[in-house]
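Consider the tokenized backbone below.
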């Protein structure tokens, strides 16, 4: 499998570079751009009215456990979390990393020391990953948008 060549520097900013993506979509003056982008990605299945930018580093529960560092993390007006990741080039074990990151955001919702009172009332966690050179197994190579969720594999009904 040939490796992809690095992009040739051009006249315009490349939004798939971490710094550029964060500059364009991750700053308060441009929040409307991120909201519009996410609303297009969700194609009417979800409508985002407002977002709050969150810290992007989540330390581990234990001192020696590594931190998860997200490219961009926001909370929607209904409390849902939006994790946006931008990755250039082929990513090994991206599925596992995606599960780890989203699981961290789910488990962080449990109140520390009062888990019995919580009753697992989980707000939505969404991962939007902009990946270069990525194809899901079984999909045509020109497919660029994948909607993946928990579902009943027998019926396809979303949980």
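A designed sequence for it:
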């Amino acid at each position: 499998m040939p490796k992809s060549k690095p992009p040739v520097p051009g006249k315009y900013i490349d939004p798939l570079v971490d710094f550029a993506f964060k500059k364009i979509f991750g700053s308060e003056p441009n929040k409307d751009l991120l909201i519009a982008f996410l609303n297009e990605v969700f194609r009417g299945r979800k409508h985002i009215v407002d977002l709050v930018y969150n810290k992007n580093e989540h330390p581990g529960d234990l001192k020696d456990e590594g931190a998860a560092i997200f490219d961009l993390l926001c909370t929607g007006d209904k409390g849902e979390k939006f994790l946006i990741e931008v990755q250039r080039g082929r990513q090994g074990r991206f599925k596992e990393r995606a599960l780890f990151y989203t699981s961290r955001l789910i488990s962080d919702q449990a109140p520390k020391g009062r888990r019995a009172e919580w009753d697992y009332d989980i707000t939505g966690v969404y991962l939007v990953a902009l990946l270069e050179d990525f194809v899901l197994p079984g999909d045509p190579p020109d497919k660029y948008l994948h909607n993946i969720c928990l579902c009943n594999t027998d019926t396809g009904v979303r949980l």
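The first helix runs from residue 18 to 25.
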